[in-house]
Design brief:
binds magnesium ion; 2 domains; Transferase(Phosphotransferase), domain 1; binds adenosine-5'-diphosphate; about 230 residues; about 20% strand; globular; 10 strands; disordered C terminus; Phosphorylase Kinase, domain 1
Length: about 230
């Protein structure tokens, strides 16, 4: 039987055309899959790991990410449709989402648009959390906005299942840090809008766990400062 790994780039129906991004874990290619515009997310071999272990890690992570991308669609969260999973070459073939990364878009948005987008993002992350999903890497590079202003979440490589307050706060705390470090001027406005959306979604479902989750973000920050002080000694 022909394996997808061998097929990639070898048949006219599946073509990898352009390297878009090379991350620590994966290379992302743009291409076509039976006439559709797609992204190939290919987890790369790590030579420093024992071969068998490396293969296992890549397989597990590929499957986890693909499952999460598919699973969260149940809650009407926009994620790229998964077309094919190939554990042999640890590749996910998914729909190419045409749009802009939130990272590059923020500076072009007016205040009310920023508020609107971040409020919606807060609602989306609340839906994930209420259903026991942790995205694991909520950065402005992992959010794509389409021309019709739909918000797409991508990069579920660090996705996990959890119902703990701590894990949910850590998820949000990462976004907070990214906003401070990469979008400092917009941090307050965007993060407050995010929290408003997050709280609203919880409240509307009669769930007040958001109080503890948001409170815990400050506790995490206190711990961070403590660690930094320790390092200085
Ligand atoms: N489905 C997709 N549609 C369009 N662009 C994508 C898609 N998936 C990934 N990308 C682009 O590739 C980049 C890296 O993908 P990502 O899954 O975040 O990999 P990494 O784990 O290396 O961060 C994203 O920031 C985005 O620009
Ligand atoms: Mg990413």
């Amino acid at each position: 039987m022909e394996k997808l790994g061998d097929k990639l780039g070898m048949t006219r129906n599946i073509t990898k055309e352009k390297l878009l991004h090379k991350g620590a874990e994966a290379s992302l290619f743009y291409g076509h899959w039976f006439g559709k515009e797609v992204i190939f997310k290919h987890r790369i071999i790590k030579d420093y790991r024992i071969e068998q272990l490396d293969r296992k890690i890549r397989t597990v992570r590929t499957l986890n990410e693909a499952r999460a991308l598919i699973k969260v669609k149940e809650y009407r969260i926009n994620t790229p449709q998964v077309y094919e999973i190939d554990t042999e070459s640890s590749t996910i073939i998914m729909k190419y989402i045409s749009g802009s990364k939130l990272k590059n878009l923020i500076k072009t948005l007016n205040i009310s648009k920023k508020k609107e987008i971040f409020t919606n993002l807060g609602r989306i992350i609340a839906i994930l959390h209420i259903n026991g999903h942790i995205h694991g890497d909520i950065t402005t590079s992992n959010i794509i906005l389409t021309s019709s202003e739909d918000i797409f979440l991508i990069d579920f490589g660090l996705h996990d299942y959890s119902d703990s307050i701590e894990d949910k706060s850590v998820d949000i705390h990462l976004l907070k840090r990214v906003l401070i470090s990469s979008h400092g001027d917009d941090f307050k406005l965007c993060f407050n809008a995010f929290l408003e959306g997050y709280k609203s979604e919880y409240r509307e479902r009669g769930n007040n766990a958001y109080n503890d989750i948001i409170k815990n973000i400050s506790i995490i920050e206190t711990r961070g400062r403590y660690v930094k002080k320790e390092n200085r000694l």
